[in-house]
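Student: I would love a firmer grasp of how sequence relates to backbone shape in proteins. I am handing you a single protein, as its sequence and its fold in token form. I am told such tokens are a discrete way to write the fold. I hope you can help me see how the letters and the tokens relate. Take your time, and here it is.
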Amino acid sequence: MGLVTGDMTLYYGDKVMEIAGTVLFFVNPHIPHSIVRSAKKREGYACLFTETFIAGRERKEVLQNSPLFRSDGTPIIQLDKEQAAFITGLFQKMLAVHDSNYDRKDELIRNCIELIIHEGLRIQPPANGQQRNNAAARITRLFINLLERQFPIDNTEQPLRLRTPQDFAEALSVHTNYLNRAVKEVTGKPTTAHITERIAAEAKALLLYTDWRVADIAYSLGFEYPTYFNNFFKRVTGFTPNSLRKGKV
């Protein structure tokens, strides 16, 4: 999350947002994003933290359920002078505490982070109406974008990271049931069908156009054992990986 003054354009998921003046912004690292600066002069603060750092169930629920970090939320909050001064003080407090020798400085920084999140929600409550109506289409586009960004696979060292609806739901900061309903509503197919079809398509390409061992292909696609991959491939395509590679289909 950050506090910034200056003109810039934020590309966040499928949204394009123009930033001017002083804003408080929140970014989910799992959602594709980039910033294009429109002015040379800009100033502000940034705070990068992990979910692990936000200790405690109640704090994590605030983080996970906050619309500020959701793919269908609005991550930018315009601030007036009074609001900007208050948020600036919190970021300055975190910097001062971070550089201090205070024994419980992590806890104090967590409190500041939580307070900034709550202040953001207070200033700009979640929007309803049209945004809610478009939420299913938006989350579906982001799901498909995340799915496609994993391909093509160009090495055997790192297995596929997102393989289940739960994986994608966590990356998009939404509940798995919500993701499944949205994808089925928009595309007419379950989330698992999209994932299965895309993994099978990539498996075919790797079998036909690389000389990787079947075991390496299985690992790169996230299968712990080649047998699991063989069973998956035959169930989806009707033939085995080796039969496809040898041209016997």
